[in-house]
Amino acid sequence: MKKSIVLISVLIGATVLFGAKAAVLDGLKRPFFIKVDENRFYITDGPTVSIYSLKDHTLINRFGKEGEGPQEFKLDNRNARGVMIALTEDKIVVNSVGRVSFFTKDGKYLGEKQTGGSGTRFQPVGDGKYVGEGFGNENNINYSLRHLYDPDFKRGPELYKRESFFQPKGALNAFYFFSPIVEVYQSKIFINGVDNQVYVFDNTGKKLYTITFEHEKIKIADEYKERVHEWHKTYPEMRRFYDMIKDRLTFPAYFPGIRMFNVADGKVYILTYKKKGKNSEFVVLDIKGNPLKRGFVHFAERDLRTFAPYTIKNGKLYQLVETDDNEAWELHITDISFTAKSRFTSKSNPPQ
Length: 352
What we know:
By secondary structure, this protein is mainly β. Helices cover 7% and strands 46% of the residues. A five-stranded mixed β-sheet has the order 1-26-25-24-23, with helices on one face. Strands 2-29-28-27 form a four-stranded antiparallel β-sheet, with no helix packed on it. The chain has a four-stranded antiparallel β-sheet with strand order 3-4-5-6, with no helix packed on it.
């Protein structure tokens, strides 16, 4: 019997959980990113960062605008929808083109550091160091890189390297369109690999261990491939490239085991490609990768390939959902503790 089948039989949590609307959030246009700490949640929307109370969901502060001056943010082509932020115990770290800016948790400006072209999407990992994303080319192959960086954003040890989606020639793997995910938790760095593994490093770059995620294989149907082609043909950021890539786009036989993952609360929360209608599966592992539970959660999708901004904290899924009339955004909160005692036996639907 395959390990994936054993995993399914021992994990609990067959219930489907539906998110409860917690609040309507005014003033958001097209939110990009959400993070949550113990008392507040933070949303990026274009070049602005909004700070809300977690207790009553009221707006505490909103800062940032597009530009190149202090407290202004320049967006790159990939992040045109918003800046990316990271949280430390007492700071908000804001990434924009060529620099990282620092603010208090109340949104007071503290200063900035220039990063040049060394990398992007920096996250603090302790001792003044960062993990960041970069790109390289070897033997006419483009790579997406993950490196450690020192306090002055000088590139240090390489942690992970994977072929990028865009290549000068040859096949284009449809699932390389999404970059490797990096999560930082308690000064440890978690990076997902193409082989459904998560590699864990300390903040010196030393590899600590590997989490091997066993999963039920879901075959990729021809209908799904056709819909991905249609997505690339119509998605605003991709449609201008479609004629160049349409004959090179390739698919593996099966969906990857990991669609997205988060590390919080001493656990690893893995979003898979398994679905039941509008509900998506989350698998919860302990910090070492041992299986704990699984279940389906009502999960808002933007389209075939992308989903509404979300994060996980304290066993809860926080997701930003656009209203039916497209005039406002709601915060939905779902408990994903999966406390049901029944075993998981029902079959799920492949992505449609």
